[in-house]
Amino acid sequence: MNAKAEKFVKMLKDNEIAVFAEEQLKDELNTVLFRSAMEIEGQRLPLVIVIDDSIYVLCRTLIAGRCITEINQAEVQNFLNHLNRSYKTFKYYSTEAGEIVMDSCLPTTIEQFEPNMVRAMIDLSVKNLEDNYRVLMQKVWGTTAEASARSEKTKPEKGKKASAEVS
Q1: For the domain with range 3-140, which CATH number is right: 3.30.1460.70, 3.40.50.2000, 3.40.50.10860, 2.40.170.20?
Q2: E strand segments, 95-166
Q3: Can you give the pTM of this predicted structure?
Q4: Helix, strand, coil percent content, the chain, rounded in steps of 5
């Protein structure tokens, strides 16, 4: 295990934090993954902390899986760009598979690594998602789904004339 990951594990034990599953990749950077999830708006969003021998510690959250379509892509990308302009700490992006991901990166050397900064980064991620998750998901599902539902409700049944009543 790399030295930064050892410091992180010690901080977790010292603070009796037992929400992470640890996985050592045994690669050239001695990468250790710490997997967990955060609950936002009743949804459990997968979270992984990547700690290795590079100068970076990465906090990655999968916000939504395979949700970007041709229909919502422009609106979602515009909102992700808005979030990226609004928050220096976070980078929102979509993958080729249509997933929405949020990354936060902490540059640090082994000597300067402070595990509590990772905790702070996670806390900021939770706060950021609590502030933005609902609007983001409305961009993904809400507007298009609502319009589609309204459209379906106003379609007349086969063989019947459309009614002028609006409910």
Answers
A1: 3.30.1460.70
A2: 100-107
A3: 0.83
A4: 40, 25, 35
Say whether 8 sits in a helix, a strand or coil: helix
**CB-based burial label for 155 (10 Å; 0-12, 13-18, 19+):** exposed
- Rounded to whole angstroms, how far apart are CA atoms 135 and 140? 9
Give Cβ neighbours of residue 75 (< 8 Å, ≥ 6 apart): 139, 143
Lookup: tokens for 34: 């710490």
What does the pLDDT look like over 70-117, one tens digit per residue? 999 999 999 999 999 999 999 999 999 999 999 999 999 999 999 999
Amino acid occupying residue 31 = T
Closest to 79 in 3D by CA, of 146, 142, 151: 142
Tokens 């997968």 belong to 46
**Per-domain residue ranges of the chain:** 3-140
132 with 83: CB under 8 angstroms? Answer: yes
